[in-house]
Amino acid sequence: MSDDPQAGLDRGAVKWALKDALDELLGLSDVRLAPRYEGGTLVIKPGKTETQEKAIPLEVFFHKITMARDRLRVLEQRINAHPKLSEEDKIELQQYITRVYGSLTSFNVLFKDKDDWFIGARSTAGS
Q1: Which residue has the higher pLDDT, 94 or 120?
Q2: pLDDT, tens digit, for every residue of 18-77?
Q3: Are 53 and 41 in contact (CB under 8 A)?
Q4: Of the candidates 88, 123, 86, 91, which has an alpha carbon nearest to the alpha carbon of residue 105?
Q5: CA geometry: angle at 100 spanning 97 and 101, to 5°?
Q6: Where in the chain are the domains?
Q7: Are 126 and 111 in contact (CB under 8 A)?
Q8: Dihedral pair phi/psi, residue 111, rounded to 5°
């Protein structure tokens, strides 16, 4: 056995393991596009006929949506761990983030797995 603490360590494997651990800790995951949308295109067609439409591959658009979601999750973690925010402020900011998630639920159709969906505030009976 070698006395060198770095012996046998593959830098790539260590980076991958660290990334995997951080993703798990922060709630980030390998999110997949629903198969029916693979290879699809989002077309933004202006109301004015003299202007050009914009076509975006759905994989690119989906990546942007999932990155926004991941950044919201990191923001949640940072708010919850912030040492100077009061509990009241943390709750208020968390409720705001929940409303943002609710605004993004229209994009759930793009996700392969329901576990990856955006979920806003749940309504309760009588409220």
Answers
A1: 94
A2: 766 666 665 556 789 999 999 999 999 999 999 999 999 999 999 999 999 989 989 999
A3: no
A4: 123
A5: 90
A6: 31-116
A7: no
A8: -85, 135
Show Cβ contacts of residue 120 under 8 Å, excluding neighbours closer than 6 positions.
98, 99, 101, 102, 103, 105
In the predicted model, what is the mean pLDDT of the chain? Answer: 84
Token digits for 72? 């919201």
Helix (H), strand (E) at residue 31:
none
The conformation of residue 103, written as its DSSP 8-state character, comes to H
d(CA 117, CA 69) in angstroms, rounded, equals 10
Q: Looking at per-residue confidence, does 86 or 123 come out higher?
A: 86
pLDDT digits over 29-42, tens only?
A: 678 999 999 999 99
**Contact between residue 94 and residue 77 where contact means Cβ atoms under 8 Å apart:** no
User: Per this entry, what is the length of the chain?
Assistant: 127
Structure tokens of 99?
């409303």
The amino acid at 118: F
Q: What is the distance of C-alpha 92 from the center of its chain? A: 21
